[in-house]
Amino acid sequence: MFPGIMIVLLLLVLSGAVAYIGDLLGRRFGKKKLSIFGLRPKYTSIIFTIASGVMITAITLCVMLLMSQYVRTALFGLGKLRTERAQAQAEVAETRGRLTQMRQRDQKTRAELADLQLRFDKEQQALAGLRDQLDEDSARLDELTREIDAKNRDLDAARAALDKVKVTLSAAQGDVVRLTAERAKLEQERAALAQRKETLERDIAAMAAQFSEAQKDILHGEIIYYKHQSLARFFASAGIGREDLAGKITEAMSVLQQAAVENGAVLGRDAGMFAELQIDKVWDTVRTSDVDVVIDARAATNVIKGEPFYIELTPHRNRVVFTQGEAVASAPVPAGASEEQVREILSGLLSGVMEEARRRGILLDPKTGMVGTMSVSRFQAALTALTMADTGVKITLYAARDTRVADKLHVDYRIE
Fold first, then answer.
1. E strand or H helix at 77, and its extent?
2. Rounded to the nearest 5°, which phi and psi values hold at 294?
């Protein structure tokens, strides 16, 4: 504010000084009757008066222009200011438009967020429903487990009743004596049977039916062959012709039929037709296989002396099921575990290995009924090493060599 007052005061002083000088010059020119440009003194005085007024205005403008940027801008930059103002207004309008668009997008985003929240709430409700269904399924599973346990008890009772049958009891006692002599194998098989719960559930009905048939057959005579009893196992190479295959199978079946006749069975009138059907079944597998095929020969029915004897053939592609070094099962062993605890862990692992071998298609050994084995010396070595371990370790059972469908899985171990 102070610079403005100084400018006003300076303008007043200059204006008064210029007016005074102009009036003084006018009177002097008037008294002396001076003339310029040939004009009369009166007009000369008027010209000096006008010039003094012009000078006042000119000096005022010059002082204001020199001392105030705002005056210079008002006089010479007004058009530019108007242009800048128009540009600023246009930018403000554009900014307002973008702001409106952003608000619209924000509203749309809020609507989408609300929709997503609604969908999330619905998903949460559906998840809650699934959890309730899972709880119901768990309860049902517990009920089924109890039913299975009851069926297992019934199966044990049926086995106990069947053991009283003298014919089957004598054969079972021979197997028990042999398995009792091999302690490690007995433990492995016992653990494997404990782990075969699911398999037994599927086989309960079939076994019960077989037990019933066996009891009926025992009442009628001496059983020579039991249903699905393994008779022989032979191979057919990949690429073999049908005639060669039929000749090989016919020759093998003739040997088995001759042995059955010597044991008291007779050949049925339709044995030849049945054999042809079995050959066709095997050929369907052999002609499409790129590996050798192992053929299981089994008794088609329970056979009593004097009754017809039929051979059922089951082909299997002899593919590689386990590769050498492939890990099959593993389990941690805590530090300080007792020998009995380690033995249980090893037995459980072996049971899992045997169950996995059966699941992948390894065929049962016709003599032992097993699909795999671990040597007693390696089992004892693992038992000793794990019992003496000072820290917690992990034991892994793996295939000792490449194993095909018809091979027995040989298992070894490594400790990590």
1. none
2. -95, 135
The dihedral formed by the CA atoms of 30, 32, 36 and 39, expressed in degrees to the nearest 10: 60
**Following DSSP, what letter does each residue of 187-244 receive, concatenated?**
HHHHHHHHH-HHHHHHHHHHHHHHHHHHHHHHHHS-EEE-TT-EEEEEEE-TT--HHH
pLDDT digits (tens, 9 = 90+) for 283-339: 988 888 888 988 888 888 888 888 888 888 889 888 898 999 999 889 998 888 888
Q: What is the pLDDT of residues 272-292, one digit of tens each?
A: 888 888 888 889 888 888 889
Nearest residue to 198 via CA among 345, 314, 352:
352
Neighbouring C-beta atoms of residue 356, cutoff 10 Å: 19
Contact between 377 and 183 under an 8 Å Cβ cutoff? The reply is no
Q: Confirm if 228 and 310 have CB atoms less than 8 A apart.
A: no
Q: State the Cα–Cα distance between residues 140 and 130, nearest whole angstrom.
A: 15
Q: Is 311 exposed, middle or buried (0-12, 13-18, 19+ CB in 10 A)?
A: buried
Nearest CA-CA partner of 300 in 281, 285, 282, 278: 278
Name the one residue in this structure whose structure tokens are 């040597």.
375
Q: Does the CA dihedral 366-367-369-370 come out positive or negative?
A: negative
92: which 2 tokens? 């403000």
Question: What is the C-alpha to C-alpha distance for residues 139 and 131, in angstroms, rounded to an integer?
Answer: 12
Angstrom distance (rounded) from CA 252 to CA 297:
9
Taking the model in full, what pTM does it have? 0.44
Q: Where do the domains of the chain lie?
A: 2-76, 222-318, 323-415
Q: CA–CA separation, 203 vs 97, rounded Å?
A: 78
